[in-house]
Design a protein that fits this description.
Rossmann fold, 7-stranded parallel β-sheet, 2 domains, two-stranded antiparallel ribbon, alpha/beta
Length: 365
């Protein structure tokens, strides 16, 4: 009988889930994984994952599953445990964000995100806990959370809330099962590469969840010179974006005996991403200007001409004064004259470290 451990990984045909599965295979796990989509491209990714797992010495089983559907998590779990012949580790990694601002959300968007990113996670943890308790298994569960559970991002309110809820949820769940020797933890990735440059060229049209896709990949299909993660990486404190294997190694540690005294935590694996702020620009944050509202221009705070222009009153010329009267704004460096009041904001300015900043604009009204 094989002494390899047994793991279920959701969403492992590509991206972060695949990287997690490959690391676990190296650590001595056989893998049963779910995937979504039965089109030619999806099956191509599944075949590649199976081949890569085999190269790592792991047996694997793959099951098509739309985890948003009622009953699908239970059906997948039963098939996976039957194929593996047991269970030592559950990894919930399947998930998406559908970037939309509050004013454009639909009930369908909300239902889909809650079904996949929260309900499926909870139900699979429930089934795993029951199985482990019934069979006397001192097992482990690890969920993939997100830096969006720690920080607010534009166009991601539902996703941010779901991940923040997951971070608190597992603290309570960990208490529920600790007496059975079962541990539950999260990992919280930051900006992590989920597609290779070759895989980006396979995407013919970016969907609502493909924030990393660019039309240039169609215009120049021969090669991707620089992608979303290449551009974002230098803005992260450790100087690069994460790789799926970074997340996999963190999960392997949390599932190991070396972490046998760790439960109920959310471990950040983000290269320091959220420490200084939010360097990502996943969406433009633009204030909608009223017709009667003064116009402002966007200037880097460190620029010599960093002074908002009020086209209605000409206040933009104030930066020419050598000895301006009044006090200086602590945030924007703008000199404030008597009677100045907030009249707008400069939004999305960039500090020298690449961190988004916003400043109040003052003037006479």
């Amino acid at each position: 009988m094989s002494d390899r451990k047994k793991a279920i990984v959701t969403g492992a045909s590509i991206g972060m889930g695949r990287g997690i599965a490959l690391v676990l295979a190296e650590e001595g796990y056989d893998i049963a994984f779910s995937y979504y989509g039965d089109d030619e491209q999806s099956l191509k990714y599944v075949d590649k994952t199976v081949s890569m797992l085999k190269e790592k010495g792991a047996k694997s089983w793959q099951f098509s599953a739309d985890l948003t559907k009622k009953g699908a998590p239970k059906e997948f779990f039963d098939k996976a445990v039957s194929a593996l012949g047991g269970l030592d580790l559950l990894v919930n990694s399947a998930g998406v964000n559908m970037p939309l601002p509050l004013q454009e959300l639909t009930e369908e968007n909300i239902d889909y995100l809650f079904a996949l990113d929260q309900k499926a996670y909870v139900m699979l943890m429930h089934y795993a806990a029951c199985y482990m308790i019934d069979n006397g298994i001192r097992g482990c569960m690890v969920n993939v959370s997100s830096s969006r559970g720690d920080r607010a991002y534009p166009n991601a309110g539902i996703y941010c809330g779901i991940k923040a809820g997951l971070n608190r949820m597992i603290e309570a769940f960990a208490l529920d099962v600790a007496g059975y020797g079962i541990r539950i933890n999260n990992v919280s990735p930051g900006a992590t590469r989920v597609r290779t440059k070759e895989e980006l060229l396979d995407i013919k049209k970016g969907g609502p969840t493909d924030y990393f896709w660019d039309e240039a990949y169609i215009e120049h299909p021969e090669k991707v010179e620089s992608d979303f993660w290449d551009k974002l990486g230098p803005k992260i404190p450790l100087g690069r974006c994460g790789e799926a294997e970074d997340i996999g190694r963190a999960i392997a540690f949390l599932a190991s005996d070396k972490a046998s005294y760790i439960t109920g935590i959310t471990l950040r694996v983000d290269g320091g991403l959220v420490l200084p702020g939010m360097p990502e620009r996943t969406a433009s944050i633009q204030k909608k200007r009223r017709p009667d509202e003064p116009e402002t221009r966007r200037i880097h705070p460190g620029h010599a001409d960093h002074q908002p222009v009020d086209t209605a009153s000409g206040l933009g010329r104030r930066h020419r004064c050598r000895k301006p009267r009044g006090r200086r704004s602590a945030f924007s460096g703008q000199y404030l004259l008597p009677g100045d009041r907030p009249c707008g904001r400069i939004v999305g300015a960039r500090s020298e470290r690449g961190v988004d900043q916003s400043f109040d604009v003052y003037g006479q009204k």
